Amino acid sequence: xxxxxxxxxxxxxxxxxxxxxxxxxxxxxxxxxxxxxxxxxxxxxxxxxxxxxxxxxxxxxxxxxxxxxxxxxxxxxxxxxxxxxxxxxxxxxxxxxxxxxxxxxxxxxxxxxxxxxxxxxxxxxxxxxxxxxxxxxxxxxxxxxxxxxxxxxxxxxxxxxxxxxxxxxxxxxxxxxxxxxxxxxxxxxxxxxxxxxxxxxxxxxxxxxxxxxxxxxxxxxxxxxxxxxxxxxxxxxxxxxxxxxxxxxxxxxxxxxxxxxxxxxxxxxxxxxxxxxxxxxxxxxxxxxxxxxxxxxxxxxxxxxxxxxxxxxxxxxxxxxxxxxxxxxxxxxxxxxx
Length: 338
Ligand code: 3EB
Prior knowledge:
The protein contains six helices and 22 strands. It is α+β, with helices and mostly antiparallel strands. The strands form five sheets. The protein has a seven-stranded mixed sheet with strand order 4-20-19-22-16-15-14, with helices on one face. The longest helix is centred in the C-terminal third of the chain and has 22 residues, at 257-278. It starts with 10 loop residues before the first helix and ends with a strand. It binds 3-(2-carboxyethyl)benzoic acid. Residues 140, 178-180, 210, 222, 224, 241-242, 244, 246, 324, 331 line the site of 3-(2-carboxyethyl)benzoic acid.
């Protein structure tokens, strides 16, 4: 042993407990689970029209989406260090030195275009107030996503409003990873995770970047990256955006469920491959998946494809939802934990 040499303390490694994590908890297990939980950033509920259990708890937001089968389920985001409450404008959430999480109910009775812009401007105000955080992941669950609003589909109006807010306030040249899926049960919501450092965007070599879609899909393109890598201490996590049967910018396998499943699987593999090539820190964590199906009956066909990519032990939520192109039958998002 060399004299005078001692292994230095590595506070960065000692504190390398994951900065955040997600847990999918069925309603029947939630009360007990919450008793041992610490540092809850936020809870999104699926399939619960009357959130009586948690009505008084501001960390809880109901999504307008229901599980494909079975009881209501909850998506719980936790931090590794204590969090504080913050409410600004329409956004309620939590933050600490490293992270912020919040949700807003989108007031879209006068149209989704101004409502999406207002909601995102409120989100940027919240991020500023939470210590200048930057968004690393958005989830958008508008209701009636395919309905007409004065001659334009609501999803296209949503894209215009979101784009306007991003041009005004997003302080990075590429947008974060995201999901947009239409719901049926209650109000439109947007929720998000943010951090003191931006995530690194990743695109899918099989797909045109969504923010470069041609105008045939609407006057403003959807503002999201296909995936992003977030590094904390010596570990990385990966956010894979909602992924569907789109190659280039075109929908593939219209009316063909098996074809869409196979194409979606190829897209997931391709974007995960691309992320792994770009990873500066190892990705070691478990996968958490959200699977959105237009028809519940698709589940038995989708499950084996998902297992082959992510393994049978990955935690997952299956939800009924309208994908933002009418012809699309499924969309899958993935989060690889630290
Ligand atoms: C697509 O690839 C499918 O508008 O934020 C997926 C993920 C989709 C996010 C969004 C839309 C969004 O275009 C739809």
